[in-house]
Design brief:
The complex is a heterodimer of chains A (518) and B (213).
Chain A lengths: L1 H18 L9 H19 L2 H4 L47 H27 L6 H19 L3 H19 L5 H34 L8 H7 L5 H19 L7 H8 L2 H28 L3 H23 L5 H22 L2 H31 L10 H4 L1 H14 L6 H15 L3 H26 L16 H19 L3 H15 L3
Helix pairs in contact in A: 1-2, 1-5, 2-4, 4-5, 4-11, 4-14, 4-19, 4-20, 5-6, 5-11, 6-7, 6-11, 7-9, 7-10, 8-11, 9-11, 9-12, 10-11, 10-13, 11-12, 11-13, 11-14, 12-13, 12-18, 13-14, 13-17, 13-18, 14-16, 14-17, 14-19, 14-20, 16-18, 16-19, 17-19
Chain B lengths: L1 H20 L3 H16 L1 H5 L5 H29 L11 H17 L1 H4 L10 H18 L3 H19 L8 H29 L13
Classes of the chains: A mainly alpha (518), B mainly alpha (213).
Chain lengths: 518, 213
């Protein structure tokens, strides 16, 4: 089974990374594993035959509840209907592994972004030759493995275990530089995310318990939960959803549970920040989508929508507040992540066309954030600083990275012709179509504030002349530091101009799956 | 069986109140360890046919929650060589009172929270909620890193107790995974505490406040 191979790549690579003795050659295991991972993802996605069944083109369904049923929701999901109550005997693979349509979208993002980050990391670690990188490589691969498992399992309990594993495997990555601020960030990240995620476990239990109350066989399997949802106890289900939203929302960086995020994104090495903000929090969003789906199927979608819209707008507002006048480039980008997670929650809450926009936004935001964090990483390496008074004239100091950073800024704030423009436009269109005019107005106003706030910082960093004083390094744009950024940004540009039919197929399939009652 | 179960749950609640009231860090860790051991006895009490897997779960719980994790925390405490007092943001008496109120409210609502036909009696859900509240209280009102970790541990224990209601639904693989995560989590946390100590010469998490804005 391909999915099994996909999950096994990372543990194998992790062990290999631990065994390789050479500090100089060890980082190359990262791109090697990344390429194998991506090829397996390609095989899994293509064998699912996603793109073929769904016609490309603009969405046809209208209104709050999507009606375009293109394929049955469980097509391609290798989940099994067999339910063994209290089964504790042999482990049947299909009882554990399975890839739902929204998972496919996130899987594609995670894998492609990791390829870019892996190549970048090789260059990054080469510059830090005297720094031991065994722990870093091992944890980075384990981190990828944990994310893959979150995406590829169909059991709410195992999802939780894997999600907590992402926290544990990535904590040492933040601490890589061994500075006081990085300890602080690691501590906050570990404690806040662990406690947050603990609530998600309780939420999963509540959802399962909602089944017991009405005499159903409890289960943590996604397929069983979706099937039983309409008959479950509403109060426990709603309580469970709130806990799941708070728990996975913490990991996703939704305000007001976001306080770990700027610290962790700001202090970790840039390729790690890029994975955090492009892949990890998108994976957490996948968990929020799955939780919302259960409530939606139970006929309680309006309740989930209200909460998601509220948290979404709140996140955007918080981000706007902290981004205006932000001097630290990486923290600025981190708040931008909070903003975009807010946009995703908003799109999911509104549903319909906006949900399609949100699915596309997962991809566009992920790749843009990858490009931005990696280019800021280059700026950080060149100036030895990531704050404004020290960083100036990046366009002169680093022509390629400076330019890519500037373009990435234009992309993430929703300027055409880049991908986020299209996805935000679809979300806005969906919001207006659903009749939420006030929400659309707030959405636009916050986007404007963020554009201005972010613009001031970015222009100050890129324009002007390079300050004469300050620590100089010999860092120049190179193949390993420039190409991954360029690749991410080209993907973003492509998604803005032309979305390939297979990708449209993935997005449509995910949207339909989330909006249809099984 | 129900008698023993309820007796253990009452004991667990008492440990919570003790944890809120104690001023000695060592006593707090011992209390958490004792609670962990008690929890280990619960799964075999709840399952009807005691096979190897519930027993394995019980042994793993007792070993990890009762012995390994507390020892890691004690070691972190020894390495720290700082004051061994708990240092609360709010006093011990108010903490106990808050914990007692939370427990009382949870017990008062027990009738509404649990289904009438539950074979496990009425105490499981209120105990679990009481433990969650205790964990949160310790997490938010204590400043030492180790104390916050114990708060997290008690929170996890609360979720474990709620999980008793679902023993048939939660596959053992997931249970073991949760335990493993907890173990690795505390392991990583105690390493970080060690580094906090070295870098800041204190475990006071209030010093971790340079990252703002």
């Amino acid at each position: 089974m391909d999915v099994l191979a996909l999950i096994l790549v990372c543990p194998v690579a992790t062990v290999l990374a631990g065994l390789i003795p050479s500090n100089r050659w060890r980082p190359w295991i990262l791109p090697a594993a990344a390429v194998v991972h991506l090829s397996l993802v390609a095989i899994v996605l293509l064998s699912g035959g996603m793109g073929a069944k769904v016609k490309p083109g603009p969405t046809t369904h209208e209104g709050f509840i999507g009606t375009a049923l293109v394929t049955p929701p469980h097509a391609g999901t290798p989940s099994v209907t067999k339910v063994v109550p209290g089964d504790s005997g042999g482990i049947v693979l299909s009882d554990w592994l399975g890839l739902d349509p929204p998972g496919r979208v996130v899987l594609l993002l995670v894998s492609m972004l990791f390829v870019a980050c892996a190549f970048y990391t090789v260059g990054y670690l080469r510059d830090l030759r005297d720094h031991l990188n065994r722990v870093f490589c091992v944890c980075f691969l384990a981190f990828l493995g944990a994310m893959t498992l979150v995406i590829c399992t169909n059991n709410l309990g195992l999802m939780w275990v894997a999600m907590e594993a992402t926290t544990l495997s990535s904590a040492p990555l933040i601490y890589f530089k061994h500075t006081q601020t990085s300890i602080e960030a690691t501590w906050k990240y570990l404690l806040l995310c662990s406690v947050g995620i603990a609530l998600a476990l309780l939420g999963s239990f509540f959802v399962a318990y909602a089944a017991i109350l009405h005499g159903l066989t409890p289960s943590l399997k996604l397929a069983d939960l979706l099937r039983q949802a309409p008959e479950m106890d509403k109060r426990w289900l709603e309580a469970g959803f709130v806990l799941l939203l708070v728990g996975y929302g913490t990991k996703m960086g939704l305000a007001p549970m976001h306080s770990w995020l700027p610290d962790a994104h700001g202090e970790s090495p840039s390729p790690v920040s890029a994975m955090f903000s492009g892949a990890l929090i998108s994976t957490a969003f996948l968990m929020v989508m799955r939780s919302q789906h259960i409530l939606y199927v139970a006929g309680d979608g309006a309740y989930a929508s209200r909460l998601l819209i509220l948290l979404g707008l709140l996140s955007m507002a918080f981000a706007a507040m902290f981004m205006v006048g932000q001097k630290d480039l990486k923290r600025m980008l981190a708040y931008s992540s909070v903003e975009h997670m807010g946009i995703l929650a908003l799109g999911l809450g509104i549903g319909g066309i906006a949900l399609l926009g949100a699915m596309l936004h997962v991809l566009t935001n992920g790749f843009t954030k990858g490009a931005l964090f990696l280019s800021v990483g280059n700026i950080d390496r060149a100036y030895g600083s990531k704050t404004i008074p020290e960083v100036r004239g990046a366009l002169r100091r680093l022509p390629l990275s400076g330019m890519l950073f500037l373009l990435g800024f234009l992309a993430i704030t929703g300027s055409p012709p880049f991908g986020p423009f299209i996805s935000e436009l679809i979300i806005l269109y969906g919001t207006l179509m659903a009749g939420h005019f006030l929400i659309a107005a707030i959405f636009l106003a916050l986007l404007l504030v963020i554009f201005i706030g972010m613009g001031r910082t970015v222009l100050a960093a890129t324009q002007g002349s390079v300050p004469a004083s300050g620590r100089r390094s010999r860092f120049r744009d190179g193949l390993l530091s420039g190409l991954p950024v360029l690749a991410c940004l080209l993907i973003v540009l492509m998604l803005g101009l032309y979305i390939p039919p297979p990708v449209w197929g993935l997005l449509h399939h995910a949207t339909n799956y989330l909006e249809v009652k099984p | 069986m129900l008698m023993i179960l309820n007796a253990i749950l009452v004991l667990v609640i008492l440990i919570n109140l003790f944890a809120l009231g104690t001023s000695r860090m060592k006593a707090l860790i011992h209390a958490a360890a004792f609670q962990g051991v008690l929890l280990g006895f619960l799964p075999p009490l709840v399952v009807k046919d005691v096979g190897t897997l519930p027993l394995l779960m019980a042994v793993m719980t007792i070993v990890l929650k009762g012995i390994v994790i507390p020892n890691m925390l004690l070691k972190a405490l020894r390495d720290a060589q700082v004051k061994r007092e708990v240092e609360p943001l709010i006093g011990f008496m108010p903490s106990i009172l808050l914990g007692a109120v939370a427990t009382a409210v949870a017990l008062a609502l027990a009738g509404h929270l649990a289904p009438a036909h539950s074979p496990l009696g009425l105490l499981v859900i209120p105990t679990s909620i009481s433990m969650l509240c205790t964990g949160f209280l310790l997490l938010t009102t204590r400043v030492k890193a180790v104390t916050q970790v114990i708060g997290f541990l008690l929170l996890e224990n609360g979720i474990f107790v709620f999980g008793l209601l679902l023993l048939s639904a939660i596959p053992y693989l997931v249970e073991l995974g949760v335990l493993l995560d907890l173990f690795v989590g505390i392991f990583v946390i105690s390493i970080i505490i060690h580094h906090i100590n070295r870098a800041f010469a204190s475990q006071d998490t209030r010093r971790l406040s340079s990252l703002k804005g």
